[in-house]
Each structure stands twice: as structure tokens, then as C-alpha cells.
Amino acid sequence: MLVPAANCGVYGLRPTVGLLSRRGALPITLAQDTPGPLALRVAHLAAALGGMRPDDHRRYHDALRVDRLAGARIALCLAGPEADAQTAWADAVATLLTAGVDLRPATTAIPVDGPSDLLVPAFDFRDSVGEYFDALPAGSPVRDFDTLYAHYRDATPDEQPYGIDNIEASARVDLRADRALRNRLRADEYDAAQRVLEHLREIDGVDAVLFPGPLATFLASKSGHPAVALPAGTLPGGRPFALSLLATRPDDEQYLLDLAASWEHLNGPTPSACP
Q1: Cβ neighbours of residue 99 closer than 8 Å, sequence gap 6 or more
Q2: At what angle do helices 42-51 and 253-267 cross, to 10 degrees?
Q3: Can you list the alpha helix ranges (DSSP code H) found in 203-252?
Q4: Which of 195, 204, 198, 253 is nearest to 227 (CA)?
Q5: pTM for the predicted model, two decimal places
Q6: Nearest to 239 by CA among 112, 92, 108, 84
Q7: Cα dihedral angle (195, 200, 204, 208), rounded to 10 degrees?
Q8: Can you give the pLDDT of all 275 residues of the chain as single tens digits?
């Protein structure tokens, strides 16, 4: 949710892993997968999240606050933005400081990528996609990974506009020989993510971490904690620029939505937002 939201200039929420049902979603890695809403306005984002949880469908929307930036304790990820986004990033940080956000440099390294980004999703997709196909109606043309792979491998370039690197990676996985390595990588990065977030909470005393663009994605996926993407203007050439915020605690969706609503209240709706 963070990457498409950032690239499209809208708000996007990646909830705590396990908060929402994944029924009907094509699995990539069940250790990290979660659905989540995209919206032009934060009120719509909160309402959509509530609609995905029928037991408390008004909870997030009705509890929204727009006064949460002043005094908010947020760590600043020092990973640099892309070259053409440095000015936009500096402007966004200055806006938050002016709004009274207590921005603190993190005193621990905050990872934005890692080795299991390659093996774990490739392994898990190959391992679990069969269960997804088993749940499809009888007569569906694709019933297993091998059929899916053969379809994309033999497709024309026009039929695979984004390439087939990911499915090729899954095809190279040996489900028996690679399982122990997959499990070790996943456990190591989950533990490392939890240690980073514990340090940020307990030592740095922050409730969220600010990243340029959608760079919160890696730590959110490895830890399972929620994160939100905030539109933050456009870059030269018209490409959207965004911020992303990761909660240092799980199940802290309301706090992130409040920060997003406060950001929107401060800066106004995104240019394409409906009333």
C-alpha cells in the first residue's frame, strides 16, 4: 500500500499484519502480507479501514483527530531520498518542525532493505500459491504454480509489461533445500526489526519513524507494524513525492491516521482530492 500510494500521490495505510483478513488475496508471503486502503482523503482512508473491519466499522473515522502533530515524538530516518526529491524532503521536514513535531535523529540504524526481500517472498509464493488456486472455482485455467509460470514464461512482451523477474525467482526455489535458509532469514530479520523498534520506543522515546518516500515498507513488512503514506507535493516533471510513517508499536493504526489527518489539515487536501 505504501509504494502505490506514494507513486500515485494519495494516502495509503499498511495495517498491522493480521489485523485484516487476507481471504481472496493472492499470497506473496503470508509472513508479511496484509491488505490495506488507499484514499484521496484521510477521512476516506479511516472509513475504508473501518469498512474492512465490520465489527467496528465507525471506529477509526469517528475517532480521527487533527491536532496530533504538535508534540508528536517522531524519529527521523537518515536514509537519503532520491536526488530529485532532496528539496521536497527538506521542505516536508521543515513543515513538520514548524508544526511542533519533536523530530529526533534515530540513535540506531534503521534498515530500509535486506537479503530476505529476495528469498522469502520467492519461496513463500511458490510454497503457498497452490492453496489460493485450490480455492478458485472448478474449471479455472490455472491450478498450480507450474501452470502459472509456464503461462508467463511463454507470454509475449506485451503480456508481461513488468517483466517476470519475481516469478522466475520463485521458479528457481527448491522448496525442500531452501526451507531452512528461508526460515532463518525470516526469523533473523523479524528479530532485528523488533530490536530496532524496541530501541526507538524505549531509548529514543518515539512513537513513529519518518521516512522519505515509501521507505517504511521494508521495516513495516519485517516487523508487521502499521505504516502510512502521506502525499507531500510533486517533484520536477510532476512525479508525486510522499512521506511514510511507521509506528513503533503494533496495532497503532489510529495514531497514524491521526498524524495523517493532522498533516492533511495543515497542508490542505491533495490537488486531485474530491470534497
Answers
A1: 69, 70, 262, 266
A2: 160
A3: 217-223
A4: 253
A5: 0.92
A6: 84
A7: -170
A8: 899 999 999 999 999 999 999 888 888 998 899 999 999 999 999 999 999 987 776 789 999 999 999 999 999 998 878 889 999 999 999 999 999 999 999 999 999 987 666 889 999 999 999 888 888 888 888 889 999 999 889 989 888 888 889 899 999 999 999 999 999 999 999 999 999 999 999 999 999 999 999 999 999 999 999 999 999 999 988 899 999 999 999 999 999 999 999 999 999 887 654 44
Strand order in the sheet with 73-76: 38-39, 11-14, 227-234, 240-247, 208-212, 73-76, 102-105
Given a contact cutoff of 8 angstroms between Cβ atoms, the answer to whether 230 and 99 are in contact is: no
Compute CA 245 distance to the chain's CA centroid, rounded to the nearest angstrom.
9
Amino acid at 152: Y
- Maximum Cα–Cα distance across the chain: 59
* Cell 513513529, located at residue: 208
Give Cα separations from 86 to 3, 92, 259 (angstroms).
18, 10, 22
